[in-house]
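The methods section describes the discrete structure representation at length, but only in general terms. An entry of this sort, consisting of the sequence and the corresponding backbone structure tokens, reads as follows.
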Amino acid sequence: MEWFVRARHWHIFLPVFLIPFIMIMAGVFLLKVYFNPALLFFLFPLSIAIGQIVLYLWMWSVVKMLADKLLDYNIGGLFYFRLAIIIPLVLTGLLLLFWMYGATLFSLGAYSMAGILYTSLFFILPIKVLVIISMFYCYLFVAKMLKTAELQRPVSFEDFFTEFILIALLPIGIWFLQPRINNLVKKNS
């Protein structure tokens, strides 16, 4: 886990964005021509899951490293952050399994469009809302921890708004935030 906080910005950018992007583009252009096009249906959620898992592991390691350094400040919410990290990872895995199971049933003709709509509305939609809420809480918490570590004082939302936007604009924000995290690691080592 320490690799994430010591890594260069492009080391994080590769598995969060570039590798999933290449998987999708290879699926769109190569799988249609040379392989079974049905593999593309499985490649999209798999590439998204890879990017999400690496992103959440990066946030987990950043908060873990900064929480050890910020014992003097009452950051609060560390339990909720851990919960907010675990929820999207588990639910992303479940949705990936559900997607593959549904794709298999759909290709076998065992699913109807009404069943897909019903499942989407009553199963996937609430899960996605929970994932989005957890995701924004993680972004907020990582931004707050980063700015608190830099300023060495308690911060308000106005102080870490820029960091929150950078994290929300991933993967672009990685290019600006990871060098700052590396500087914090060097300064505290």
In short: The longest helix spans residues 113-151.
